[in-house]
Each structure stands twice: as C-alpha cells, then as structure tokens.
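Sanity check

After download, print the first record. It should look like this:
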Amino acid sequence: NLNKEINKNIYFRVHPSSLFKDIIEKEISKNFGVEKIDRSIFDDIFTKYNLIIDTNIQTTYYQCLNSGVPVLLFYNQELINVTPLTKKNFLNMKKNKFKFSNTKNLKRHIEGIYNDPSGWWNSKKNLKIRADFSKNCSLNTKNDLEVWKKFFLKI
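Expected structure tokens:
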C-alpha cells in the first residue's frame, strides 16, 4: 500500500469523455480511494498539485506535459494505429516511468519521487524524453490553427 501521507496528497485526473472512464475510476477507487479522483475544472489542476496523474492520452495529457508540473500517465489500454516512431516514444516513456499500466508500479514510482517530483521531472534524460515526445506527437507552432487548416485543405 501507498504511504498514507503520500496517498492523502495525490489525485487522479480522469478524462470526462474517456471510453474507459468507469473502468479507470473503479481501479483508482479500489487502489487509492474514490476521493482521489479530481473532478474540478481542468485548468485548476496546475495550481493545485505538485504532481499530476493523468489517465488518457489526449489533448489534456499534452497540456499537462507542457504545464511545468510533473505528470504521470496511468493508462492501461493498448495503443492502436500509431507510427513506429510514436510507438517508440511511448515505450521509452514507459521504460523511464512516465507511463504506467498497473497501480503497483505506479505506487512504487510515486513513493520514489514524492519528496522531489520536479527533480525527477527536470532531469536531463527526462527533458529529452519529453522533448522527443512533444516533437513527434504534438503541434507547437505560432499558429497551430493555420497549420491544421493547411493540412485539411490538402486532403
């Protein structure tokens, strides 16, 4: 079990439209407690927590990655139809403890970084992993909307 002091200070952010929302919430409730599921306004999490645990690889995960607040991903679904480079990025993230598919390993990692999650998050190795992932999996231009517009006009 997770240290009680640590458990009282961690919360999970479950994507409200996730197809797996009920399964994820049941797993979190069983292993951490139902009160550990944060249902507040998304933007509030960046000022409320020193460590974010997200549960879905969508836009919110990219926002968390770029927020400056350390984020872990608790995600147990297999990824389908991703490029070999994206698959490599996800495997690297799992290997380096960004992504977890079971609560046992997640708890162990939280206990290991709890006293200084920013130190872990901002290590040279983890900065590179995040940069590689962002470069491959997210847009970050001066005008993302214009990039998408050009993309769709080419189709």
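If your output differs, re-run the checksum step. Summary of this record's structure: The radius of gyration is 16 Å.
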